[in-house]
Amino acid sequence: MIERVIGPTSHVFYSQRLKLHYVDWGNASAPPMVLIHGGRDHCRNWDWVAQELREQYHIIAPDLRGHGDSEWSRGGQYALIDYVLDVAQLLEHLRLFPITLVGHSLGGGIACQYSGIYPDRVKQLVSIEGLGPPPKHIRQGPAHQRMHDWIAQMQAFAGRHVRRYPSLDEAVQRMQEANKHLSAEQAYHLTLHGTYRNEDGTYTWKFDNYVRSQSPYSFNLEEAKGIWGRVTCPTLLLRGLESWASDPMLDGRAQAFPNACCVNVAQAGHWVHHDQLDKFLEVVGDFLRENA
Fold this sequence. Notes:
By secondary structure, the protein is an alpha/beta fold. The chain has ten helices and ten strands.
């Protein structure tokens, strides 16, 4: 009983001279699993999932650069290639292959990229809405205009003041506004681990505002499909029916994976693992057992 309430231990590793943080839920003799969070999130967003799976797996969850308790990128650059490199560095540091990767949104994209680059190192892959923008949402227009807009965006970030919340409760309220499916307990937990308390008693989010920036380069779906096509492990693609994300079976992205199945989860938005935790654990548990 005591074992189930003890939380994870904190550790650090280095990538591109950045000091990055991850948590380890113990059970080192069990099969390894890495949980990768999405944008403007943090590693402790996986706590409910980790609590349920920690007895079957050795769970590691990193804070991506610019998020949680990891350092912010010098210069404010946050490209997918940098995140993939960071996860590659973490996995080199851990040396726990073959590994199961579970990622949400940005984290799902990172997991898919890594699995296609190092297919022999990944045993199972779960991606929650992690295939990038739906094909119809991919940014178009001439390159010079995209570069112009990106420069203006970065200049605007330079002058942006970090929002300070007078109390933790007000930050919790903002968290609930971002995801209406969250319970009060979930919103409090995510906010508690996702904010700093400043010296004046106010609270600010831990993530770097620059992680909001959008690359001036268009998402190259054909190159992404080329990488996904190298993923040899069983792959589970999850999507919430109330999300903005399109169905990868209908838009053709799922077909790029040699061995993928897709599940749409009812009454769930973008954060399927928060919105329908029990269903998420059921679907993922069945997938992992069937492909052990």
